[in-house]
Amino acid sequence: REKNMHSHVLCIGNIVVDMVLRGASRIPEEGSLEIFERRETRLGGCASNTAIALSRLGISTSLIAKVGYDGEGAFCAEVLKKNGVTANLIYSSEEATSSSIIIIPPSGNRMILHTLGANKNFNPQEIHWDHMENKKVLSVGGIGILPLFSGEGLQGLLRAARLLGITIVADTAINHRFSQSDWEKILGPCYPFLDV
Question: pLDDT tens, 134-157?
Answer without folding.
Answer: 999 999 999 999 999 999 999 999
